[in-house]
């Protein structure tokens, strides 16, 4: 089966131009004369530009198949240095004197366009300022679903970094070791690898989480571990490594033990692994996301764990660490070739512990390909 080679190079101008044309075709199909994006992830997808808007609005405008920026004068030189887009309509400041504010610059950027497509996240005050016919259509997110070959390579690299973080957490785990020690070791190892591999990394689109939900805390996956929590013998622990490396994301999570687990933990681990295997068996182009989740959760319910399910089977990766497609019972979306998803069914026993592996998985033409390669079997995860 084909594998994805991790890459660290920046995208070409052609990569960005191809993305813009894909989005523009969708805009034209919906009858739009222009499209306005403001959400950082969507702007980054089409331009490679990262900014901190704060009180000064920042827009990417698509019109006549071309991309342009509307941004404060403060960001003009920054944009010229770090993006391929050359047309910029700037405004002086916020607040600004009459005729020189962001709404005036946006008006210039839209020109004679009459029907404007907008993101669902666009603030209402911007929609009001546009003052023309607008319609919500998340066409950039639609295009982001299916990854290019370049994007797959960058996600594969992020998965490689996730494996580095996971291995570091496992290697540093021992009875009495604190959360602070594990967190520091994991983050340091991942940061060092990224800097070594990508000296020009943009830390505005680089985020790292490397921690362990220790013992009973592992049954509360969205809780916050205490830095003073310590590894105890035989307890279930869940390592969580999630990152965005220079713009693209991946994750790897593992249930593991320091010292021999008891029989209950062994049985829960094996049930989790069977649910995981069911999920992997169902990942293929054309599979309905809601059906995948239903079959996985039906298995867990049949094993007596209806009250121990806290979340869906998976979600998508790309620029975001949580994005569509959603492998959840409420989704009617079908998986497509070159989407990337997580597989992470879990079992959570209050006061005892959680059991969950999570992997970053490419939906290839022939089925799932796991991009994260950390150990998965119980005998590998009893340290």
What would you say this structure looks like, in words?
With 383 residues, the protein is α+β, with helices and mostly antiparallel strands. It folds into two domains: 13-143, 3-Layer(aba) Sandwich (Creatine Amidinohydrolase, Chain A, domain 1); 146-380, Alpha-Beta Complex (Creatine Amidinohydrolase), CATH 3.90.230. It contains ten helices and 16 strands. The chain has helices at 13-29, 40-47, 76-82, 102-110, 124-130, 139-145, 149-171, 179-197, 263-282, 289-302, and strands at residues 34-37, 59-63, 66-72, 88-91, 115-118, 133-136, 207-214, 237-245, 248-256, 314-316, 323-327, 340-343, 346-349, 353-356, 359-364, 367-370. A six-stranded mixed sheet has the order 4-3-2-1-5-6. A hairpin with a 2-residue loop joins strand 15 and strand 16 (367-370). Helix 9 (263-282) packs antiparallel against helix 10. The longest helix is centred in the middle third of the chain and has 23 residues, at 149-171. The two termini are 31 Å apart. GO terms for molecular function: aminopeptidase activity. Residues 155-364 form the Peptidase M24 domain. This is Aminopeptidase P family protein. Residues 19-145 form the Creatinase N-terminal domain. It comes from Abyssobacteria bacterium (strain SURF_5).
Task: Based on the model shown, name its key terms.
383 residues, Creatine Amidinohydrolase, Chain A, domain 1, Creatine Amidinohydrolase, three-stranded antiparallel β-sheet, 10 helices, 34% helix, aminopeptidase, Creatinase/aminopeptidase-like
Which oligomeric state applies? single chain
The named CATH superfamily of the largest domain: Creatinase/methionine aminopeptidase superfamily
Strand order across the largest sheet: 4-3-2-1-5-6
Strand content: 15-25%
Number of DSSP-assigned strands:
16
Number of helices: 10
**What form results from the Cα inertia axes?**
elongated
Domain Peptidase M24: 155-364
Domain Creatinase N-terminal: 19-145
Pfam families: Creatinase_N, Peptidase_M24
Keywords: Aminopeptidase, Hydrolase, Protease
């Amino acid at each position: 089966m084909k594998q994805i080679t991790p890459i660290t190079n920046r995208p070409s101008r052609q990569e960005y131009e191809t993305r813009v044309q894909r989005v523009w075709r969708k805009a034209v199909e919906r009858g739009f004369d222009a499209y306005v994006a403001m959400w950082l992830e969507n702007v980054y997808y089409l331009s490679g530009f990262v900014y901190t808007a704060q009180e000064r609005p920042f827009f990417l405008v698509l019109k006549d198949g071309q991309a342009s920026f509307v941004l404060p004068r403060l960001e003009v030189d920054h944009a010229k240095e770090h993006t391929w887009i050359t047309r910029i309509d700037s405004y002086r400041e916020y607040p600004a004197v009459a005729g020189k504010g962001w709404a005036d610059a946006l008006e210039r950027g839209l020109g004679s366009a009459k029907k404007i497509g907008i993101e669902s996240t666009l603030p209402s005050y911007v929609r009001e300022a546009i003052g023309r016919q607008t319609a919500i259509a998340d066409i950039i997110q639609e295009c982001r679903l299916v990854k290019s070959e370049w994007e797959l390579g960058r996600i594969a690299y992020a998965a490689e970094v996730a494996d580095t973080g996971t291995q570091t957490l496992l290697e540093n785990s021992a009875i009495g070791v604190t959360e602070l020690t594990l967190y520091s070791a994991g983050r340091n190892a991942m940061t060092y690898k990224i800097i070594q591999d990508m000296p020009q990394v943009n830390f505005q689109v680089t985020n790292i989480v490397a921690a362990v939900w220790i013992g009973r805390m592992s049954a509360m996956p969205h809780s916050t571990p205490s830095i003073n929590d310590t590894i105890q013998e035989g307890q279930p622990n869940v390592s969580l490594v999630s990152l965005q490396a220079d713009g693209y994301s991946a994750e790897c999570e593992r249930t593991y033990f320091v010292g021999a687990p008891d029989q209950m933990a062994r049985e829960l681990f094996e049930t989790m692994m069977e649910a995981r295997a069911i999920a992997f068996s169902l990942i293929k182009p054309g599979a309905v996301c809601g059906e995948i989740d239903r079959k996985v959760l039906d298995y867990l319910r049949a094993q007596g764990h209806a009250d121990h399910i806290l979340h869906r089977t998976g979600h998508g990766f790309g620029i975001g660490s949580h994005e569509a497609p959603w492998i959840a019972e409420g989704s009617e979306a079908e998986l497509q070739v070159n989407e990337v998803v997580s597989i992470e069914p879990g079992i959570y026993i209050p006061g005892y512990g959680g059991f969950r592996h999570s992997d970053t998985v490419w939906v290839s033409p022939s089925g799932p390909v796991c991009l994260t390669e950390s150990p998965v079997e119980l005998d590998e995860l009893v340290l």
